[in-house]
């Protein structure tokens, strides 16, 4: 009897499966003639699986989502779904590599990139000379994340308001997958959502060639040091009368040829990505104190200690970057134990048992001269080579980042854009304008949340043509024309197959 059923369920010569399909077939105990199920009946829901069984252990240590992960139908939800249950391996192709190169080229064309590798190497040599327990190289993760905040939030937003353009700006938000809504960090089980905006511009909505607001900001700063305090104190004065100048958020998409995509799900995902960026930047701009707390919660979601001192090596390296002169005044204030007018930071009870003294790393005039020969930072560094009354931590960078975000308040445009670039030529061949819609984004968020919490099966690609290069195409329902009824019959066959296999195994065990 078993052999009869077995022949009905299993073809004599099933086609060999690729490694990805075979792994899922083994995992879900599928008979060789089955198709991949529309939804796994036994595994945890996608987000739980993504956060506990991921080949990238960072996502297990710090469960989170990227903005792009909320775009579940950016190509095909089923492909995303099956990839999650493979452990979320990342496979980069040539087009992705070219896209990354182009984005880096765009970033470098807008923001000065300073190579501090030689300085870092010398500082590490000095660190080998200091006693054990010195803060020269401590808290590497906190220091690295702080450097990103300094560069990709503080310095980039300063660039936005003084040049009209900034690229690669860090943003974040939170999502409540249970309720399907974007939320704040104080919501129970809120999941961090991180992103980087490709391009942000100040644009006069009535006359795109009018740069007078930026000119007024620069003129207002002429009598002040190039500092955060200078911009914060003078910005409203300079921006007065420039209500038509708004912040436009843009995502840059690269294509191997000069033709924008036509698949509805791909177009929709690109537009939604800009709407998420717009919403998150707008939210971060509203309340500096709340944004400060959200930034700290975001850092803590990565397992970082927001009260850990930044390393001496990281501190000095930061001074050599474009943000160095922006932060120099702040660092002197912190060293002197002074407040800088941000209540949540100023009123915090800081650790008093930390001895923070960069002069224990740079101990001689010769060492200082060598540092300044590599990068001319003597005016910035010299005042800091002493015992500090308060150690610099992620808290001070979060405070300044929150204040910089707040400059965007009430200046967000009611449209976003998607730019399409040819990755071979670098040419921007099309720009699409999207109207900001709160309802549209809320509906998309609810739909994506249903996917991540396993409340519905994944949806398939718009057309079979999109399945051409998919690793799951041979066994996916979409390209194989399977219907829901077919899937139900296959599920019965799968269960019967597993039953017969179990019976055979039991009989074999009984006979031995």
Automatic annotation (TrEMBL):
GO biological process: interstrand cross-link repair
Superkingdom per UniProt: Eukaryota
A GO MF term: single-stranded DNA 5'-3' DNA exonuclease activity
Cofactor: [4Fe-4S] cluster; Mg(2+)
Keywords: 4Fe-4S, Exonuclease, Hydrolase, Iron, Iron-sulfur, Metal-binding, Nuclease
Sequence intervals crossing the membrane: none
One GO location term (cellular component): nucleus
Subunit structure: Monomer.
Family of the protein in this entry: Belongs to the EXO5 family.
PANTHER family, per database record: EXONUCLEASE V (PTHR14464)
Designated name of the protein: Exonuclease V, mitochondrial
Provenance organism: Diutina rugosa (Yeast)
């Amino acid at each position: 009897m078993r052999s009869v059923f077995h022949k009905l369920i299993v073809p004599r010569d099933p086609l060999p499966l690729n490694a990805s399909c075979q792994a899922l077939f083994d995992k879900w105990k599928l008979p060789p003639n089955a198709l991949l199920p529309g939804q796994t009946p036994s595994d945890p829901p996608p987000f739980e699986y993504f956060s506990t069984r991921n080949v990238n252990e960072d996502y297990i240590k710090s469960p989170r989502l990227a903005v792009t992960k909320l775009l579940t139908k950016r190509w095909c939800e089923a492909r995303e779904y099956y990839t999650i249950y493979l452990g979320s391996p990342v496979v980069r192709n040539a087009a992705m590599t070219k896209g990354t190169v182009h984005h880096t080229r765009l970033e470098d064309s807008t923001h000065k990139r300073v190579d501090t590798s030689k300085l870092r190497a010398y500082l590490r040599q000095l660190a080998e000379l200091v006693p054990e327990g010195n803060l020269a190289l401590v808290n590497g993760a906190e220091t690295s994340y702080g450097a990103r905040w300094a560069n990709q939030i503080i310095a980039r937003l300063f660039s936005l308001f003084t040049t009209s353009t900034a690229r690669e700006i860090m943003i974040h938000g939170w999502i409540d997958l249970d309720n399907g809504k974007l939320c704040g960090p104080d919501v129970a089980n809120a999941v961090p959502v991180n992103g980087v905006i490709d391009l942000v511009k100040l644009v006069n909505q009535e006359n795109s060639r009018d740069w007078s607001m930026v000119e007024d900001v620069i003129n207002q700063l002429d009598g002040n040091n190039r500092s955060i305090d200078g911009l914060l104190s003078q910005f409203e004065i300079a921006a007065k009368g420039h209500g038509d100048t708004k912040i436009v958020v843009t995502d840059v998409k690269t294509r191997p040829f000069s033709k924008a995509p036509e698949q509805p799900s791909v177009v929709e995902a690109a537009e939604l990505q800009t709407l998420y960026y717009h919403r998150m930047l707008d939210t971060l701009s509203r309340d500096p104190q709340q944004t400060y707390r959200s930034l700290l919660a975001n850092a803590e979601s990565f397992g970082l200690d927001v009260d850990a001192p930044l390393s001496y090596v990281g501190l000095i390296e930061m001074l050599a970057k474009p943000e160095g002169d922006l932060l120099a005044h702040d660092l002197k204030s912190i060293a002197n134990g002074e407040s800088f007018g941000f209540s949540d930071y100023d009123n915090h009870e800081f650790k008093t048992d930390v001895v923070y003294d960069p002069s224990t790393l740079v101990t001689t005039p010769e060492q200082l001269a060598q540092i300044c020969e590599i990068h001319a930072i003597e005016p910035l560094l010299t005042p800091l080579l002493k015992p500090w009354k308060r150690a610099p931590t992620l808290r001070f960078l979060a405070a300044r980042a929150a204040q910089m975000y707040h400059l965007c308040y009430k200046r967000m445009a009611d449209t976003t854009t998607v730019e399409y670039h040819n990755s071979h030529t670098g040419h921007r061949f099309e720009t699409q304008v999207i109207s900001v819609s709160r309802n549209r984004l809320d509906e998309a968020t609810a739909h994506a949340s249903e996917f991540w919490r396993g409340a519905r099966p994944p949806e398939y690609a718009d057309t079979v043509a999109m399945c051409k290069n998919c690793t799951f195409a041979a066994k996916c329902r979409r390209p194989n024309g399977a219907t829901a009824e077919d899937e139900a019959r296959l599920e019965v066959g799968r269960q019967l197959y597993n039953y017969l296999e179990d019976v055979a195994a039991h009989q074999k065990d009984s006979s031995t």
